[in-house]
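User: Hey, quick favor. My workstation is busy. Could you predict this chain's structure for me?
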Amino acid sequence: MQPVNDFKIDVSISEQPDIIHWKVKGGINSPNLATISESHKELVVSFSPTVEQQTNCTACGEDGLNGNLVIVYEVFRDDSLGDLKKSDGYFVHHFAPSGLPRIPKNVIFLIDQSGSMHGRKMLQTRAALVHILADLATDDYFGLITFNHGIKPWKRELVQADEHNVGIAKAFAREIKDGGSTNINSAVLEGARMLNENLRDDSASILILLTDGDPTTGETNLEKIQQNVREAIDQKFPLYCLGFGHDVNFEFLEKMSLENNGVARRIYDDSDADLQLKGFYAEVATPLLTDVLMIYEGGDNLTRTNFNQYYNGSEIVVAGQITDNSIETFSPQVVASSGNRRLEFSERNASILLTESMSESNIRRLWAYLTVKQLLEKQLMLDGKENERAKIEALELSLKYGFVTPLTSMVVTKPPGENPQVLHKPREGKNPPPPPRGHGRRVLHNPLHSTFTSYARSAPDLLLLSDSQISGQMDYPRISLRTQGRIRGKTYIYIYIY
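Assistant: No problem, here it is.
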């Protein structure tokens, strides 16, 4: 981004529990340029580098800022049922227990090595994979499968992540070469076979796929691939799909992940792609619970209540309505597995947990946000009348609460006297046009819930207009982003500047 005379980013974070740890990092904050003011429950970060500082930071150059500003913070958590808030018949439950032992994991990495991964993509993938292998715990078991038109397992079965095996796997990863076409079907089925043959009762199994393109050889029918994968995994473990760049068919990966209890994440083809890969793995590196079921006796219109796995540093959020607004009959409970143990989190008197209230509009908006997000995911997996019904319901809630979604639009008015240029949203399968000189591209991103994405990136998950505000235009010299975080636990806020 071209240096400007007046550049500023403000991030305001407010939490109900105490903020006990925080850190500001990232290439554009080196050396430490951000100023921080804090209290027990609030954190305000201001970043306003001078023109000279915009060209002298670690991630800067003659063209100015080119990197990210990362804010990491953590709040006080205990091992109880969690934090519940209520307002006028609605509730929100944040569940993030601490003090739980980690569960050993079985993980297989499926790495696309087709010709389209040539160059920086492959270099960054190799670097990230070597780093991830070094982070495996010694009681983990792992496997590596590279694929192009054929599949090339490093080993035909999972091996323990001891020093010897990890060392050999790193050497293998460093030698991965690109070339050939893309056989996603065979790669995922082989990974599922290996995990199914090595399931351990006291462990959590994970399948991670990284690819940058469509299936071009072997089985290429997308619906048939999705069916094959569903049958092979059979709800036994999650599939996480990482789509590298804008050429990937992300909708195909997203549907395949959602059908198998996972999520899909786009990895942007930028200089920090290896950090994005490492960051995703960090989110799923430490499983703490499996088969998590959230139970709310006296609750109705609930958002998602069953979760395949819960990871360290993450959080489970459920919202809903309290039947007849009766706190006396409302009883929350969580049951889950930790290794071979079955755990129960509950409170005899739920009213004790519901003494603090958020504003009615915030509680309802959060319930509506989660509901719309899950309806959009459900729509992706449904056909016919059920698909249309989910679409209509999501649209009605989006319009009622003012959410920007793939079903709605956002209108940005031009300030009088200004002539700002507009960056168009990139289309699937096409590389985005380079921004005109002087443009800033910015993304505010949380690894758990993406609340704002600028049009310089892909379409936003959802934009909560009352919580994330933008002042200034893309080429206007002053930019200010403000957000109030509502994800408890260890939260990352990324702001990308280009």
